[in-house]
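Usage

Read records sequentially. Each one opens with the input sequence:
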Amino acid sequence: MVQTIEITEKLTLQAEKIGKGPRLFFLAGGGATIHYYHPFLKKLGKHFEIIALHYPGFHNTINYRSELTLEYYTAIVAKFLQTFGKGHHVLAHSMGGGIALSVDACYPKLISKMVLMSPMLQQFSLTESKILARVALNVTKSTRKSTLLTKKEASIFLEENLQNYPEMSKQLKMLRTNFRVPLEHVTPAKKLLLLGGDDVIFPIKEELALAKKLQRAEIVVLTGHGHDLMFSAENEVLELIQEFAV
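and closes with the structure output:
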């Protein structure tokens, strides 16, 4: 069920409610709509009431401004969560994880617990072509390939397989220039980080080094899995979320 939530006179956001149980807010990854996560969220909805936010700039969202920065999305998500009170439990993937940590740094006590799946803890240093190539490799789960796809090959693959490719391309450029997660200012909300041992988007060595800087963070590495843990390690991820988020 899609809801529209008026934050201010100038800002209305859309969110989907899925399932019943303790409330759990969901923040998607960059370039992905909530529809991409539906199979996973519907299974999680057997145990939680999921409130999944449609980011401004994705799919059929409204009141969108082209201000694609971490600060913009941090403010948007914080205003959204504030309409429900504080002390929330949040589940986030990839870019959503970076946003959740930024919200925690800028708006203390708004989040009490967060589960971060393959979170964005670092700013991309790769060129857009290599980012696109790694995304394509991740989607095809071809993590054992020794060479990256060319920009043309990756673009063709994404255009054929992802309905929101133009938004993804725009988001990738934004991530490279405007996203730096303020890890040094994150407050001690309780955190569970689920990292893929074969993640080609955020390599495990770099992720672990940054994750260890966070306070009150439990880290679980899922060996043999990539960036989209909620699909490749679905049962294990569902179990870990249930144990941590209740």
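Summary fields computed downstream for this record:
- The two ends are 23 Å apart (CA to CA).
- The chain has one domain: 2-124+179-245.
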